[in-house]
Amino acid sequence: MDKNIQIAVVGSGYVGLVAAVCFAEMGHTVICVDNDDRKVAALQGGDTLIHENHLPELLERYRNTKIRFMSDLGEATRECEAIFIAVGTPQSETGDADLSYVEAVACEIARSINGYKVIVEKSTVPVYTNEWVRRAIERNGVDRNLFDVVSNPEFLREGTAVADFLHPDRIVVGADSDKAAALLQEIYAPLTSGEYYKLPNAIEGPCGPTEPPPLLLTSTKSAEIIKHASNAFLALKISFINAVSNLCEATDANVEQVALGMGLDSRIGPKFLRPGIGYGGSCFPKDVAAFRSVAEQMGIDFNLLSEVEKINVQQKKRFLAKVRSALWTLRTKRIGVLGLAFKGETDDIRESPAIDLVEMLLGEGCSVTAFDPAAMKRTQDVLPATSHLKYVNSAYEAAQDSDALLILTDWPEFASLDLDRLNKIMRYPIIIDGRNLYDPHVVAQHGFTYLSIGRPASN
Ligand code: NAD
């Protein structure tokens, strides 16, 4: 394939590690840096540490050949031409993005610059971060001609992260320098030229074969805003359909029919019109808050985003009310919970609405027996098992002797449970589905009381 570029990726989490293996898959040589020594050791030993399709096979293919792992950012900076910053940008107490990790990395890079470097913001950051990174590097005594800072936001989704990275809808490069833009174009050339997709063992896109993606060149500020605006818009779409689902419940309409009817309009599109228990994860909640905060600081009235957040909080409370409406009282009830991750196909529980609901149920005096195919370990680290909270190894064990079974995460395997078996082992045949995984009539035919989101109840 095209030119092999020496790339450093700083931060080996969901984004950094995926970017690193994908850059290797695209033919580049990568140093993956993390300041967590245990993580570095595990990755060196071939343990991906996160649940993500294709990640183990790519790590195995390139470990010790095209990818090295280390904690020494200085060495990585000296060896590489492009340095991608992919560290966390969590929400601070004020709602702003906490950029202290990005700042720490920028200062550390500055201390080791030994020639022209392009520093790339891969983390999701608010507008103007680019200028702060540049200033931080200059303040550490680096000549302005020795580096450029560009913004290259990441749009991958956990669960399909590798396929998304290699088959993006678009690649956004915000660069205020032609030289830096050219390097980023070279890095992504295997994708934009379509050459990667011709390889016999190329990883397929999440929806099968795709066209080469466009690379959109913008100013750095525009690129930073593109990422925040995109996530805020997706969160808005989710809150919108959740609000519509509440209206459907109040009027006995069916939100699935409504969403289908809306989504067939090509101006709206069918994606992100699935109602549920609210959005979560490490991105939408913090990015909506950060974008709202940026607007506030600029004196822009963007209260729409506060409404998006309000609907999202209410959606969890409405679901709890639904559980109560099915069980009358909650204290001492035994609840089976399917799903802890913030969505299916991932082990990520950050800001998971499922975890919030488990905590609410425990707070109401319920006993919870929970199962998730990948997120149990992470959940137990933050919510250890107690006499009221048990973790079990299958959906059926979670359902055993329960007063109701709740579906909180859209894992595909939860959509094909043996309903007759469930009915036999539960104390009461009640399913409350926060992800609309079943046809209400089918579940009712198996003798269940079935409540879902925005659809008429069946029993
Ligand atoms: P993560 O928490 O999984 O990974 C961050 C990593 O950075 C950790 O391994 C941490 O040890 C490391 N780190 C922190 N400080 C460091 C330092 N000084 N030097 C070296 N390593 C350091 O986070 P993530 O989910 O990969 O997200 C990273 C960024 O990408 C965030 O800004 C996020 O908003 C953005 N993003 C995330 C996703 C997603 O789906 N997770 C998608 C698009 C964008």
TrEMBL record:
So which residues are the signal peptide here?
none
Q: What SUPFAM superfamilies does UniProt report for this protein, alphabetically?
A: 6-phosphogluconate dehydrogenase C-terminal domain-like, NAD(P)-binding Rossmann-fold domains, UDP-glucose/GDP-mannose dehydrogenase C-terminal domain
Key words, A-Z = NAD, Oxidoreductase
Q: What class of enzyme is it?
A: oxidoreductase
Q: Give the reaction(s) catalysed.
A: UDP-alpha-D-glucose + 2 NAD(+) + H2O = UDP-alpha-D-glucuronate + 2 NADH + 3 H(+)
Q: Which InterPro entries match?
A: 6-PGluconate_DH-like_C_sf, NAD(P)-bd_dom_sf, UDP-Glc/GDP-Man, UDP-Glc/GDP-Man_DH_C, UDP-Glc/GDP-Man_DH_C_sf, UDP-Glc/GDP-Man_DH_dimer, UDP-Glc/GDP-Man_DH_N, UDPglc_DH_bac
Give GO terms for biological process. Answer: polysaccharide biosynthetic process
Enzyme Commission number, as recorded: 1.1.1.22
Gene Ontology MF, one:
UDP-glucose 6-dehydrogenase activity
Q: Which residues does the entry assign to the active site, renumbered to this chain?
A: 283
Q: Please state which protein family the record places this protein in.
A: Belongs to the UDP-glucose/GDP-mannose dehydrogenase family.
| Name recorded for this polypeptide | UDP-glucose 6-dehydrogenase
Q: Which organism is it from?
A: Edaphobacter dinghuensis
